[in-house]
Amino acid sequence: MTTSPDPIAYVDLARQNAGLIDDLMGRIRRVLEHGQSILGPEVAELETALARVLGVAHVIGVNSGTDALVLALASHGIGPGDEVVTPSHTFLATASAVCAVGATPVFADVDPRTMVVSAETLEAVLSPRTRAVIPVHLNGFPCDMPAIMALARRRDLVVLEDTAQALGAKRDGRMAGTFGTGCFSLHPLKVLGACGDAGFIATDDDARADDLRQRRNIGLRNRDEAALVSTNSRLDTLQAAILLGKLPYLETWIARRNDHARHYREALAGLATMPPEEASVRAIYTPFVLRIEEGRDGLRKRLADAGIDTRVHYPIPVHRQAPYRRFATGPLPATERLVETILSLPCSPELSEDQRDRVIERLQAELE
Ligand SMILES: Cc1ncc(COP(=O)(O)O)c(C=O)c1O
Prior knowledge:
By secondary structure, this protein is of the alpha/beta class. It has twelve helices and twelve strands. 39% of the residues lie in helices and 13% in strands. Helix 4 links the parallel strand 2 and strand 3 (104-108). Helix 1 packs across helix 8 (237-246) and helix 9 (250-268) runs parallel beside helix 12.
């Protein structure tokens, strides 16, 4: 067994922070100096900047991507008795948000090529009780939103886009998360990450934006009067200040991820199944997911022995997680197969070219 002297981390946030630390400390200091730590000026500034990046009328900062989904569902009036279709091949939060508003998650399979839901896989599980669908732009690959929006119009469905992993992904030049009500995470491991939990909702609808601003602030419509019953899910001013310091790097970081992805793709072509590529799509590879048709777990162990950290996103599909088994209905063959074969490679902007080449060499030696 050879052990690498210099382990390759899957992510290295300390390295990202190190390059920004003076600027970020200055921004934190300014929040401490002005003292407006709840819904301070940085929150509105970040919302305006993100709305410009996405090309939407409104961004509403909240305290996590999970809450973005919960508040958006509540704002659309989804609740007990309603079915909401989501993939099972996603992070737990998509389905947990549906349960949080008292609705019933119904699991759709994914397209085995793209690893995300399509209009067809969603339509296959619609029922007269379906009120909403939540396509998830998993791995930073944008779902075919024009087709999904057309389905939603035909069947009168609300569309929430779980864009937690896909800020900056595009389809036909349009940003993921701007077709339906866009729900985003700014978790530290996302392409744009806070130093703690954060998230936001994007919408072009003025009335929806007003409603969501009340919902994130205990239902208050002004300092003293409640418009509705809700929770506290405000985006922290300190997190907004940090995110404002990082936002200018978003395109650079996406370009770096895409560069790593291009090298992986070229070097490993024919050795493993690659993530999908479509001319009209800009994916952002959060993460870069290979498919190893045989022996994924053994390979992963040997890579770990060589100091290369990989992940599986996600090893247990939601419909097989204990609290969600009662919602499982039809078979999900593509989902079941993917969880056996997927492998996420290091692809962060902080990964050096040298480290990436070591990952490639090791994989070539293993797979050839
Ligand atoms: C697909 C997906 N949905 C929802 C979430 C929830 O976001 P958060 O961790 O900010 O609550 C995440 C990320 O963690 C995610 O990857």
